[in-house]
Amino acid sequence: MKLDDKIAAAKHLIYEFGAAKPALMCSFGKDSMVLLHLIREVLPLNRMSTHAYPVPIIYHRHPWFAMKNMFADSVIRSWALEVHDYPPLVCGVKFKKDRLELVARYRFGEDGAMDLPMNTEEPISRRDFVCGLNDWILRPKMELMTFPWQNVFIGHKSADIDLFDGRVPLHCDNTTIGKAELVFPLRHWSDDDVWDYIEAEHVPYDMRRYKDRAEIEDKWLNPDYLHACTRCIDPRNKAEQEVDCPKTGGKVPNIGQQVLRLQQRPDYIGENEEEQPCQIQ
Questions:
Q1: Angle at CA 109, nearest 5°, toward 66 and 14?
Q2: Rounded Cα gap, residues 57 and 75, in angstroms
Q3: What three-state secondary structure class fits 166?
C-alpha cells in the first residue's frame, strides 16, 4: 500500500469516528504529531469551544521532570489545544525475567480501563530519578470520573516495537473498551511513512528526541521513558526482606510480592497483524 493510500485510509477512519464526541490520546511523539495534523486536516474546527483545534486532547502528563514536556507545551500553545489529564485508577508493575516496567491503569469509557506502561530505566549516576514506591505506586489516584468521549484516536501502529513486548501488531482498526471506541488511523503505517509525512507536510516534532529519523540513544528528555528506582517493589526479588534505598541511603522493606501486577496484554494486539482484519462499522 502506498503512502497516499494509507493517508486516505487514515482520513476515512478519522472522518467516520470523528462525528461522535471524539478525542485524541496524544503523547506528542512523532506518531501522535502526524495524527494531530491529520485530524486537523479532516475535521472541522470546534466552534463551540474556546480552542481552535477540532477535538480535545488526552495527555497523561507525569509530574516529574518538567523539561520532558517542553515540546508538548509548545505545541499546546501554538495549536491552541484543549488538553485533559487525570490521575490513574491504580498503579503497579509488569515484569519478565530481564525487564520491569511501571504501569498506570486509567479510566477509559464508562466502565473500562486502559493500562499505560512506562519504558522504565535504571537511575543514571548524578541525575535525579523517581522512587518507584512513593512517587509511582503511592501517587494520587482517581476512583470515579466522567469519561465524556465516545471515540478516541491513538497513534499506535502495527509496525511499532515495544521494549517489553517486542512486536505489537494491531489486528483491527478499532476496538471497544468500556463502551468507547479506541481507533487506530495509523495502523498500517511504517516509521518511514511517518517521517515522509512529517517532511512533506512540515509537521513539527521534538528535535531533542529524534535525529536522522530515529530516537536518540539518550532518553533523558524523552517523555516515554522514566528513570526510576524499583528495588523495593520488584516482584522478581524474593530473597531479600530489605533492600538498599538510594533515596534514603539506608535499608527499606522489600514489598515486591505485595505490589499490584498489571501484566495483561491488550486484546487488540495480536501475534499476526492480518489475523483479524477489521472493517469500519
A1: 80
A2: 12
A3: strand
Locate cell 465516545: which residue?
150
Q: Using an 8 Å Cβ cutoff, are 159 and 190 in contact?
A: yes
What's the rounded Cα separation, in Å, for the pair 103 and 93? 5
pTM exceeds 0.85: yes
How far apart, in Å, are the Cα atoms of 235 and each of 129, 241, 259, 260? 20, 12, 7, 10
DSSP 87-150: --SEEEEEEETTEEEEEEEEEETTTEEEEEE-EEEPPPTTS--EEIIIIIITS---S------S
Contact predicate 232/132, CB 8 Å: yes
CATH, residue 174: 3.40.50.620
Cα gap 140→122, rounded to integer Å: 23
* Contact (Cβ atoms closer than 8 angstroms) between residue 123 and residue 129: yes
**What digits encode the pLDDT tens for the residues 73-130?**
999 999 999 999 999 999 999 999 999 999 999 999 999 999 999 999 999 999 999 9
Tens digit of pLDDT for each residue in 61-71?
Answer: 999 999 999 99
Residue at 97 is within a domain? yes
Distance, in Å, from the CA atom of 61 to the CA atom of 80, rounded to the nearest integer, reads: 17
Q: Is residue 267 part of a domain?
A: no
Residue 279 lies in a domain: no
